[in-house]
Amino acid sequence: MKYHQIDRDLFIKNRAKFMGQMKPKSAAIFNSNDIYPISADSTMPFAQHRDIFYLSGVDQEESILLLFPDAPYEHQREILFLKETNDHIAVWEGEKLTKERALAVSGIKTVYWLQEFEKILFELMTHSDTIYINTNEHYRATVETETREARFVKWWKEKYPAHAVAKSNPILQRIRSVKESEELDLIQQACNITEKGFRRILSFVKPNVMEYEIEAEFIHEFIRNRSKGFAYTPIIGSGNNANVLHYIENNQQCKAGDLILLDVGAEYANYSSDMTRTIPVSGKFSDRQKAVYNAVLNVKNEATKMLVPGTIWKQYHIEVGKIMTSELLGLGLIDKADVQNENPDWPAYKKYFMHGTSHHMGLDTHDYGILTEPMQANMVFTVEPGIYIPAEGFGIRLEDDVVIQETGAPFNLMRNIPIEVDEIESLMHS
Ligand SMILES: [Mn+2]
């Protein structure tokens, strides 16, 4: 791990919150992700399942967490099962968590090696009536592989058909969406690393640079600041590439006079940051580019003010749509007739701004959070309006990550990342 060890009090609190929501005589089980194969003996880099990480801090494959608040003995209330390690195994497999390290990382005192799992599980099952299983109910999820978690659930259901089943996911969606101060610090660190990357590329970009050269500058800056890398596949889209919303080829040359849309964020300690900036290849915006840019910036600033406790995500999007409509009228991109005749299910502004304005952000870039429930203090949202104009050869999106406050405007975790036209231009010329 490149990141500094996280204070285990975070994971102790997270488990207490989860256990506080469980039914009597129930246990909950969470699994690591698999290491995914590529072919031959090569694999994808390991990425931990965010739920077991959130509840334990264990950032290692083949780990199982079992929570059983009503267990007959105290030492059975929180149990970790880990892949066995010792000095000999460590020579071959590298450093893995020992039982002592696992306690230091997670605060969990009872740690067994994985080979003891089935025997211990059997005993605990006799004392429990309900088992919480962890299924993925994220609103954007499309999963084609069988995860380690799903494989476990299948095995467990077959083996213990008489137990009642409950869902971990709604509990996790609620507790993970409201961040602890330790988490806000980690997300801030991810944002600070993203800022360093962005400042680095501001002095690097010039006409004829390749999009992938910009990508390389970012990753260089991220890794040297203890990030594992990009929190999500970066979008470096110059000219009309910015109008392809999921453009990730990043293989074109940036031409003088064009804009480049950069949707790039560093991860830190498995926490995401999610930033978008749009900058001029030549270091100066044209008047038209500047007018559209400031329209997007105004929508972003106005939308941010609406992220307060009690706001409902769907209603918020309707209000943002009204602000965007007025900006598009001002830019002459739509006219009054377009608005009068608009289809309420697909308003006129959607021609130029066809995606959502905000999503929860945290351990996942598109983080957990139940969108039908009111916003609360310490939720982290992105704010990311855009205007995409293929006919004019550019698209502009601006995105910051903000924390909802008990009272007043949200706190902007990206407040130090340049966004005003003048500041961007002057940094590109220095
Ligand atoms: Mn985003």
TrEMBL record:
Domain Aminopeptidase P N-terminal: from-to ranges: 6-142
GO biological process entries: proteolysis
Catalytic EC class: hydrolase
Catalysed reactions, semicolon-separated: Release of any N-terminal amino acid, including proline, that is linked to proline, even from a dipeptide or tripeptide
GO molecular function: manganese ion binding; metalloaminopeptidase activity
InterPro entries: Aminopep_P_N (IPR007865), Creatin/AminoP/Spt16_N (IPR029149), Creatinase/aminopeptidase-like (IPR036005), Pept_M24 (IPR000994), X-Pro_dipept-like (IPR052433)
Alphabetized UniProt keyword annotations: Aminopeptidase, Hydrolase, Manganese, Metal-binding, Protease
Cofactor(s) demanded: Mn(2+)
Matching Gene3D superfamilies: Creatinase/methionine aminopeptidase superfamily (3.90.230.10), Creatinase/prolidase N-terminal domain (3.40.350.10)
EC number: 3.4.11.9
Record-stated family: Belongs to the peptidase M24B family.
PANTHER family: XAA-PRO AMINOPEPTIDASE 3 (PTHR43226:SF4)
Descriptive protein name: Xaa-Pro aminopeptidase
UniProt organism field: Flavobacterium granuli
